[in-house]
Amino acid sequence: MKPVQPVQPVKRLALTGIAITGALALAGCGSSNVSGSSGSSGSSGSSGSSRAELSVGASYMPQPVSADMAAGFLTITNKGDTKDELTSVTSDSAGEITMHETNGGAMEQVSSFEVPAHGQLVFKSGGNHLMFEKLKRRPEQGDTITLKLKFAESGPLTVEMPVKSATYNPSTGH
Question: What is the distance in angstroms between the CA of the first residue and the CA of the last residue of the chain?
Answer without folding.
Answer: 63
